[in-house]
Design a protein that fits this description.
The complex is a heterodimer of chains A (about 170) and B (about 425).
Chain A: H1 7-34, E1 45-47, E2 60-62, E3 67-72, E4 75-80, E5 92-93, E6 98-100, E7 107-108, E8 114-116, E9 125-131, E10 134-143
Antiparallel strand pairs in A: 1-10, 2-3, 3-4, 4-9, 5-6, 6-7, 7-8, 9-10
Chain B: H1 2-9, H2 11-16, H3 25-34, E1 44-46, H4 52-55, H5 58-77, H6 87-96, H7 101-129, H8 137-159, H9 164-177, H10 184-192, H11 199-230, H12 255-259, E2 292-294, H13 295-320, H14 345-351, H15 356-377, H16 389-411
Antiparallel strand pairs in B: 1-2
Helix pairs in contact in B: 5-7, 5-13, 6-7, 7-8, 7-13, 8-9, 8-11, 8-15, 9-10, 14-15, 14-16
The chains are: A alpha+beta (about 170), B mainly alpha (about 425).
Chain lengths: ~170, ~425
């Protein structure tokens, strides 16, 4: 009798296991109900402009894709507007020729390389493809930006940054 | 008044109000068993609990503010639809068309901020009093949970006006969740209901704000008060001499007990002979902090006054300052500077200096867990301040650091999180 589970112990353990399973099932179903279905919302291919219309010294904003187009050498890249730090929209500062995040002051260069500030990596990318002479941005998948210290291009600041004029 | 008394004395009246006339103390005690609302209170409390110095009535203040939030919140719910197409317009409508709409919205907004303040101050006061010590450890833990739920309620409510302030504060706030290792991105998506703040986010935050979190708060407050009631007559010194330093020699007690400085239990009522403490009979009794007093009316009257004072403050603020409403939420323009709600300003300040995993995940987790573990880490049985120097100093240092960080993030940061003196240009947002 000593090793065997007696009736009381069995029922008591059964209760606890049952309640545990019920709780686990509750958490699982809640998670399943509330989780985001893939493809919902913001995962479309966005048609933009012809490759020739993409500037090489500044950026072109594509609001529908929440992205910027620019050229690195001859290659067109699409940079996500979402700051890799905490998701603020990073505006491009025309006077300095750099991206300056208003939230915590992260600075990226025109190619999205991390220059200064608290963001953990450079700006994220989207895949681009030329279809019928028009660039399409695929916002369905985000390609993580380069780690800090990466230097895709080396462009000194054109002028004063935007953040300091208290705009 | 006569009519009211006659109604109470009728058969129906007596079936509703079963509280006896309060002539003796026994009647007053019976009132606590017979009345639902009064049964939340103990029959007696220690005399010290009546003083302002003891609690500053911050617990009552928190509860009254929660009541104010419930009432004003229900009023607002009648005029609000949680969808990006309607929300902002509904708030404008509340402010301009609905009777007392602007005032009610002000009451809701300012009560929410005051409640965060009151709950935090209540917690600090309880710490300095040492009221988290055995057997009240777990009620402190429930208090920590209440602080978290209060902050979550305030944060979920922040999104509902769907203005620029709301949109970007929530964008930043939920982005922090993504840095939680392994499950972070899924948790963020679960909160947002999509890749960015959108209609699903607004609905989710609304449901959390008006249903899930208030129910959780009420449940926790109920347990919190029930435990407070159960422990109400426990002396804070729990058998430890509170006022006398341990080393002081007391006449008539075993020398061994005094020499090693152990706390000495003295029961002046049971021993005959010359002992320190209160005389059992004879001289007029001097009132001590630990003497019991009836809650009805002594504590109730003070709580009533405290509640009125809190509501009066809310009324004054709500009449003199309007709750902010910025431009409608615009995902393509991040305001510069972008500020989190003030109670997260310290975190936002840290976020500007450390990796988000540290500032956005590890620090808040450590604070909540550290606070919850406090009564189990502090094994010192003493209550009086002179025996709790390390605990008090440590807590005060953390508190001051947090307040300073909050002030910096709230008032001293301008565009691109640069340093701006608040008297030169004001960038704080409430």
């Amino acid at each position: 009798m000593s090793d065997a589970l007696d009736r009381r112990e069995f029922l008591s353990a059964g209760w606890k296991v049952g309640v545990g399973l019920l709780a686990a099932a509750g958490v699982w179903t809640s998670w399943d109900l509330l989780k985001v279905r893939l493809g919902a919302g913001f995962a479309a291919r966005v048609k933009t402009v012809a490759p020739d219309a993409v500037p090489a010294n500044t950026v072109l904003e594509i609001p529908e894709a929440r992205a910027y187009l620019t050229k690195i050498g001859d290659e067109v890249v699409a940079l996500s507007e979402k700051c890799t730090h905490l998701g603020c929209r990073v505006p491009f500062c025309d006077s300095s020729g750099r991206f300056e995040c208003p939230c915590h002051g992260t600075v990226f260069n025109r190619a999205g390389d991390h220059l200064a500030g608290p963001a953990p990596r450079g700006m994220d990318f989207y895949k681009v493809e030329v279809v019928d002479g028009v660039i399409e941005i695929d916002t369905g998948e985000t390609i993580a930006g380069a780690p800090p210290g990466t230097e895709t291009i080396n462009e000194p600041a054109l002028g004063p940054p935007c953040g300091e004029d208290h705009a | 008044m006569k009519l009211l008394e006659r109604a109470r004395d009728s058969t129906i009246g007596r079936s509703i109000f079963r509280v006896p006339d309060r002539v003796t103390e026994r009647d007053r005690a019976a009132g606590h068993w017979a009345s639902f609302l009064l049964h939340l209170y103990p029959v007696k409390v220690r005399r010290v609990e009546l003083t302002f110095k003891y609690s500053a009535f911050l617990g009552v203040a928190s509860l009254v503010l929660f009541g104010s939030l419930l009432v004003s919140g229900i009023y607002l719910m009648f005029f609000y639809v949680p969808s990006p197409a309607n929300a902002y317009g509904d708030i404008q409508n509340i402010q301009t068309e609905v009777a007392f709409g602007q005032y009610i919205r002000n009451v809701h907004r300012w009560s929410a901020h005051l409640m965060v303040l009151a709950v935090a101050a209540h917690m600090a006061r309880v710490f300095y009093r040492g009221a988290y010590k055995p057997p009240k450890e777990f009620n402190w833990v429930i208090g920590v949970l209440l602080l978290v739920v209060t902050l979550l309620l305030s944060f979920t409510g922040y999104l509902l006006p769907w203005d620029q302030l709301a949109y970007w504060a929530v964008t930043v706030g939920t982005a922090m969740a993504a840095y939680v290792p392994i499950v972070g991105e899924q948790v963020q998506q679960l909160l947002l209901g999509g890749p960015t703040v959108g209609s699903a986010t607004l609905l989710r935050f609304y449901v959390l704000h008006v249903a899930v979190l208030p129910v959780a708060l009420v449940a926790l407050v109920t347990i919190h008060l029930w435990r407070w009631r159960k422990d109400s007559m426990l002396s804070t010194d729990a058998g430890v001499d509170r006022t006398e330093p341990a080393a002081k020699v007391q006449p008539g007690l075993p020398a061994a007990a005094q020499a090693n400085g152990e706390p000495v239990v003295i029961d002046g009522h049971r021993l005959l002979g010359v002992v320190p403490g209160k005389p059992a009979a004879g001289d007029r009794k001097e009132l001590s902090d630990d003497d019991p007093v009836m809650v009805w009316p002594h504590l109730l009257v003070r709580h009533g006054v405290a509640a009125l004072a809190v509501l009066f403050v809310v009324l004054l603020i709500a009449l003199s300052a309007d709750a902010p409403l910025k431009e409608i939420a615009n995902p393509t323009v991040t305001p510069n500077p972008e500020k989190a709600p003030w109670y997260f300003a310290a975190l936002q300040e840290l976020l500007a200096h450390f990796h988000p995993l540290v500032a956005g995940v590890l620090v808040p987790t450590a604070i909540v867990l550290g606070l919850a573990a406090l009564p189990y880490m502090d094994r010192n049985p003493r209550f009086s301040p002179e025996f709790r120097r390390i605990a008090r100093i440590t807590f005060t240092i953390f508190l001051v650091i947090w307040i300073v960080l909050t002030l910096i993030g709230f008032a001293f940061r301008g565009p691109s999180w640069s340093w701006v003196w608040p008297w030169e240009e004001w960038h704080g947002e409430l």
